[in-house]
Write a sequence for this structure.
RNA sequence: GGCGGCGUACCCAAGUGGCUAAGGGAGAGGUCUGCAAAACCUCGAUGCAGCGGUUCGAAUCCGCUCGCCGCCUCCA
């Protein structure tokens, strides 16, 4: 078994991955906040989560994955620090917060499905509002240990008491004193230290979403949901916790603090953070200025959602990826190339033959790339090169390896192969095909070309070869 | 003010001390083809923002300069 290496933000190093209880891996990833559509930058993060999960399985691990859905905004303590975003949307759209959340959750799930991102099943895909009780219990435990205190404006985590100030900042490598230098917000006078953060917020009567608690009516603080839900389903110590780079300095720092304060045990073994999708400003597909593109913008352009998935593989998860329509189109070309190859396999008895010997070198390379901190660009290059060599050799005995690659890439190649084999064309289309064949045989090429254009207008493509004409749906998915 | 990151061909991007700097897109030429498509072949950075340094050897390490960005406040 090959060792799997991953960059751990805790050590700022690529480390060999060793879960606490192999082959089980407990994995918690930060999920969506559902008051707006998830834009493509968000979706890149979920493609990354999915890829990490697949990579772990590729290596024989059994992944227990939990993802949260934040359906309550996390406001901190500032009196006028802002409105809960879900509530804001709810007011704007004249809906209840629940309705807003449900709407965007459905959209999120749909987009994930289109990108072939496998989400956990409930309860492992968990909503914050379903776990208020768990959060309250966790806060109680922190209070019992004397590491939090109750004030009129809320329950705060006591950073000073928790093993001293130097502990906070471990992830961001920024001491509290350094953070102070640029403080821009006013702090609640109830806080003992400006770094203390809210576990439970009280006396904010304007908020629509409120729950009873031992300390009074209010709502949970910003970070507590992740601690409560992750530990509820996965235990006090997680093997992996992932999220966006932006979460390092505050959210994850505080999560560590409050979780370890409650349990006295290490919270996370491997923190993994993904970089952003950037360069969206110049992209014309934005429906309005300042609005980030969403998956629908790509499908509107006739692009396959899986092309976006493939685009994500073009850069390492820890590198920013410059987004543009041109880049997605390039990815679409790669996707077409692979699908075309699979289509060509359709006629062969690919499932029943062993792969050729030369293929194993690619399998080796692929696995190594993946295990090297998820080097998807190299894994992708390896895949494309293998296909090219297959064409060159006219030796198509590579399907078992390719399909194995696809358990990682998630491009649905197997499903595509089945569809290709089972493709059923409407009688009308077959009639046009036959008519065109007759025209070709009669060397009436004007008529043949006209019929081809007609087929294309109906979404079908025809390709001539020595062995005959092949009919197929146009490749770009709607 | 602090912390962190980035700058590799027209575009996306891997590579972080040592074979000819992956791969893809776009482009050029060619093979095949009634046409088209697909596929295949060939070409493409003597150079990795700039300057200096360390080293037998650097895109890769160090320093400075220029440019860009993220975070410290909701944010993947």
């Amino acid at each position: 078994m090959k060792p799997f290496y991953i960059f751990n933000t805790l050590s700022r190093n690529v480390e060999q991955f060793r879960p606490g209880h192999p082959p089980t891996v407990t994995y918690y990833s930060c999920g969506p906040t559902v008051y707006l559509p998830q834009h493509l930058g968000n979706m890149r993060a979920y493609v990354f989560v999915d890829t990490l999960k697949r990579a772990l399985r590729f290596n024989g691990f059994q992944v227990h994955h939990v993802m949260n859905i934040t359906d309550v905004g996390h406001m901190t303590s500032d009196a006028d620090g802002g409105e809960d975003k879900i509530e804001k949307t709810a007011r704007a759209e004249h809906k209840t917060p629940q309705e807003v959340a449900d709407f965007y959750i459905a959209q999120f799930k749909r987009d994930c499905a289109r990108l072939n991102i496998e989400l956990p099943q409930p309860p492992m895909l968990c909503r914050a509002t379903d776990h208020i009780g768990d959060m309250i219990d966790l806060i109680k435990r922190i209070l019992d240990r004397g590491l939090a205190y109750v004030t009129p404006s809320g329950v705060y985590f006591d950073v000073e008491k928790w093993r001293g100030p130097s502990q906070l900042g471990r992830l961001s490598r920024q001491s509290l004193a350094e953070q102070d230098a640029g403080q821009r917000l006013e702090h609640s006078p109830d806080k003992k230290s400006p770094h203390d953060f809210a576990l439970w917020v009280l006396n904010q009567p304007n908020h629509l979403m409120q729950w009873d608690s031992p300390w009074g009516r209010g709502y949970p603080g910003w970070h507590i949901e992740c601690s409560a839900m992750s530990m509820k389903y996965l235990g006090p110590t997680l093997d992996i916790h992932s999220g966006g780079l932006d979460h390092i300095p505050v959210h994850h720092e505080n999560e560590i603090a409050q979780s370890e304060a409650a349990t006295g045990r290490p919270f996370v073994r491997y923190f993994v953070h993904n970089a952003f999708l950037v360069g969206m400003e110049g992209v014309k597909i934005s429906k309005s200025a300042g609005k980030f593109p969403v998956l629908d913008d790509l499908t509107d352009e006739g692009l396959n959602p899986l092309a976006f998935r493939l685009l994500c593989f073009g850069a390492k998860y820890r590198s920013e990826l410059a987004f543009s329509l041109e880049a997605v189109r390039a990815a679409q070309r790669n996707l077409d190339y692979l699908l075309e190859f699979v289509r060509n396999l359709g006629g062969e008895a690919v499932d029943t033959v062993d792969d050729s010997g030369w293929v194993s070198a690619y399998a080796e390379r692929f696995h190594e790339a993946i295990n090297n901190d998820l080097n998807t660009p190299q894994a992708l290059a390896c895949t494309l090169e293998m296909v090219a060599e297959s064409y060159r050799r006219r030796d198509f005995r590579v399907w078992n390896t390719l399909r194995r690659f696809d358990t990682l890439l998630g491009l649905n190649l197997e499903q595509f192969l089945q569809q290709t084999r089972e493709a059923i064309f409407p009688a009308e289309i077959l009639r046009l095909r036959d008519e065109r064949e007759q025209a070709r045989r009669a060397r009436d090429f004007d008529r043949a070309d006209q019929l081809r254009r007609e087929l294309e207008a109906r979404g079908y493509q025809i390709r001539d070869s020595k062995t005959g004409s092949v009919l197929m749906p146009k490749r770009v998915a709607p």
Remarks:
- The mean pLDDT of chain A is 83.
- The two ends of chain A are 41 Å apart (CA to CA).
- The first strand of chain A starts at residue 5 and ends at 8.
